[in-house]
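anyone seen this seq b4? input:
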Amino acid sequence: MEYKADIGVFGGSGFYSFMENVEYIEIDTPYGKPSDKIALAEYAGKRVAFLPRHGSAHQLPPHMIPYRANIYAMKQLGATKIIAPTASGSLQPTIKRGDFVVCDQFVDRTWGRKDTFYDGPETKHTSAAHPYCPSLRKLAIEVGKEMNIPIHEKGTVVVIQGPRFSTVAESRWFSKMGWDVINMTQYPECYLAREMGMCYANISLITDYDAGLEGRDDIPPVTEEEVYKVFGENNEKVKKMLLEMLKRIDPGQKECTCSRV
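predicted toks r here
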């Protein structure tokens, strides 16, 4: 049987546990196996592929995620668009816990990750000037506003290596550079989708204030427990937003230029 999907979603089991006729499949790629089995389900007349980027037991730290295999698996299934919610930290006082940020830029501070499909002999230089799909971003913003979610229409995410959190000095530097959000998984996931000509949008759910904010002694540095707590509290909002986006996405729509790489 040939498996197919129209849309890919990187997220945990909470996103598809409510769907019927979920089928779990294993896929091999030239870059190894993805993070876990992929759950295929139908929603609003579309085939959707769900993959937990950290694995179903959250067993893969950010620097060990098989990003190339994950993106390639979605491409193999035929997905043209990817929605990628992430737990993220705020670097600015105007971006608060529980807010959503629809990122439009990233800054890569990772190292050693396999971040291209072009290792040779074929070489290709893909532009990352505008790494996120404008059409998917627009849809995410519209849906978020309709749901009365505190949503920021743009933001730069700085991607750190992980699994450690930032020092106070690093966090202060990132904030002073004017960057908005901090995360450990957006690179190379976002860029690899661009190399594959896929539309990709990130929705950053703000769970913390990184290493605190300068001049605010009342805001302590982030802890792992805090991240899980706030993400859990807001998971229902993420699911509702995701479902509404899935209803409205036209997998064949070509308003953007993401596929022209």
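The chain has one domain: 7-248. Helices lie at 67-77, 134-146, 168-176, 186-195, 224-248. kinda curious what u guys think
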